[in-house]
Amino acid sequence: MMIVRDVQQLRAALASRRRAPGTGIEKKVGFVPTMGYLHEGHASLMRAAREQSDIVVLSIFVNPIQFGPGEDFESYPRDEERDAAVARREGVDILFIPTVEVMYPQPTRTKIRVSGLTDRLCGASRPGHFDGVTTVVAKLFNMVQPDYAFFGMKDAQQVAVLQQMVTDLNINVQIVPCPIVREHDGLALSSRNVYLSEEEREQALVLSRSLREAHEGISQGQMATVGELRSFLEAGITSVPLARIDYVEILTFPSLQPLKAEERLDDIKEDVIAALAVFFGKTRLIDNMRLEKAEVLSHV
Amino acid sequence: MMIVRDVQQLRAALASRRRAPGTGIEKKVGFVPTMGYLHEGHASLMRAAREQSDIVVLSIFVNPIQFGPGEDFESYPRDEERDAAVARREGVDILFIPTVEVMYPQPTRTKIRVSGLTDRLCGASRPGHFDGVTTVVAKLFNMVQPDYAFFGMKDAQQVAVLQQMVTDLNINVQIVPCPIVREHDGLALSSRNVYLSEEEREQALVLSRSLREAHEGISQGQMATVGELRSFLEAGITSVPLARIDYVEILTFPSLQPLKAEERLDDIKEDVIAALAVFFGKTRLIDNMRLEKAEVLSHV
Question: Where along the chain is beta-alanine bound (chains A, B) (predicted)?
Fold first, then answer.
């Protein structure tokens, strides 16, 4: 595994590996952009990339422009040495670790904005967040020029927003969404889980539990409408004392259109996503469940 | 010359030409994005591209999202057959002529915005114009993936804005600015010149004449400050009855920072641009003169 820290090195490392010598055949590049402090969720993305691509590039960059004032940019957990070990173990070929100065040598005047999809969910709670995400991901795409890019479905809105950007701007990359990875007890993996106290960690299980129970409830015909699903989730979450709801939203996916409370889940023509953001102390956790159209129809 | 009309055809045509067979050496692609109705200004860009690149791509697309309401999107002059003949004559390899549906198969939710540089000059007169330009040029860059892209200095602000975008987003292309091409009598070439009546055409010469005289005046030490230069230009332009000034601006280039009236031209550390936008009837013409730092110093 090669570790590179600036853009020229990265481009040169890719150029020399991309072309299979003699054959003229171009190898496929799989890219996993992360903010580091890697966990099994990231590892699953690297494995998907390893399986689907000839060359695997992992980037680690805590991107200041996607954090709002008062958010955890400064304190976001970092551990380069451990991250490099994980990347090596998962067969990453090129690990790109730029500094803020490498990514933003001058204050950036250029922003990419995806409207519509970004004004709900985390976009509403974190104004400007997704402009920072789309801008940095476009920069990384322009540096790596990958064939495939792998993102976890825990950040479902991020997947929807990036897919929209890639389509709208004709970026020549295939976005590959990968399933949420959970601890054995159900907690969705997140680098921010380290912030949780033991008690918060225990109570945070309510997120995955509520989603799982909602899924069962839908399959068993115990709830039929958007409003019933939302109420069920809200009731579940507020049953634990430390949970403070940021949002509980039922939307179409990937278009993220809001749904009326009285709409029946089986009348909706698109996939549906139930998305949660909940504070435990100062730590904001997200989780979600996607109800695929076929699934809703077969269960209800 | 191959004419292609959709994105897959374009990518395929480029892929097959880019690799020199057997050698593994990648050919350089030069790109000239235009709105068509080609004139000698465009031809000079194609010649620069021909000289500097192995493969020359020309695009013709009248981009609706860079026109404001009430502007001339519908009436913008178009002549595909003549344009194709010009492109063929200038040695273009691939002519890309997409429809609006090819460029925007769904309403675009993604906009690229370069702040700071776009709120003056044409950006102030034409709100949203440069968001449309940067967005469509990024799309075209993602389709063509050129090594070089050629733009005329008549749209000096466009050159500055696109250079900023390319730097900020790490787009792997070199922007090549090319000199303004003029008629024998000095009028800067523009597809919009066809809108002018004979009388307007005659009076529009005031733009290039005022810039030329200003240049002489500076060399001869007849004006020293930003304010004097601006007044000289305004007096020249308003001396013809049909001219209606949109703006006369003296700014740094390429950072497009405003300058105080009392600033001495020879004290300014950057290149300076004098930029004009003037209506003749309904037709808005632009022209400009760049005073390179070395030039100002040597003359004053």
Answer: 66
Exactly one of B42, B129, B215, B299 is catalytic; name it.
B42
**What span, in angstroms and rounded, lies between the C-alpha atoms of B141 and B136?**
9
pLDDT band at B107 (very low <50, low <70, confident <90, very high): confident
Interface of A with B (CB under 8 A): 7, 11, 19, 21-22, 24, 106, 108-117, 134-135, 138-139, 142-143, 145, 164-165, 167-172
B31, B63, B112, B113: best to mutate for the A interface, most A CBs within 10 A? B112
pLDDT digits (tens, 9 = 90+) for B27-77: 999 999 999 999 999 999 999 999 999 999 999 999 999 999 999 999 999
**Cβ contact, residue pair A115, B109, below 8 Å:** yes
CB contact under 8 A, B139 and A11: no
Domain topology for A191-293: Pantoate--beta-alanine Ligase; Chain: A,domain 2 (3.30.1300)
In Å, the largest CA–CA distance within chain A is 65
Domain range list for chain B: 2-178, 191-299
Please tell me which residue of chain A has the smallest CA distance to B26.
A24
Residues A59, A64, A66: CA angle, nearest 5 degrees: 90
- Exposure b/e, B132-154, CB count within 10 A at least 16 = b: bbbbbbbbbbbbbbbbbbbbbbb
Q: Across the interface, do A112 and B111 touch by the CB < 8 Å criterion?
A: yes
- Nearest-by-CA chain B residue for A26: B24
- Whole-complex ipTM: 0.93
Chain A partners within 8 Å of B114 (Cβ): 109-110
Among A7, A116, A139, beta carbon nearest to B109: A116
- Average pLDDT estimate for B116-143: 94
Residues on chain A touching B109 (C-beta within 8 angstroms): 114-117, 164, 168
The pLDDT score that the predictor gives to residue B296 is 56
CATH class of B2-178: alpha beta
C-beta separation of A209 from A236 below 8 A: yes
CB pairs under 8 A between A and B: 81
pLDDT band with cut points at 50, 70 and 90 for residue A24: low
pLDDT value at residue B293 = 74
Give the Cα separation of B274 and A110 in Å (integer).
25
For chain A, the residue count is 300
Residue B235, C-beta contacts closer than 8 angstroms, at least 6 positions apart: none
Matching CATH topology for B2-178 and B191-299?
Answer: no
pLDDT exceeds cutoff 80 at A299: no
The CATH H-level (homologous superfamily) assignment of domain B191-299 is Pantoate-beta-alanine ligase, C-terminal domain (3.30.1300.10)
Q: Which residues of B touch A113 (CB under 8 A)?
A: 110-113
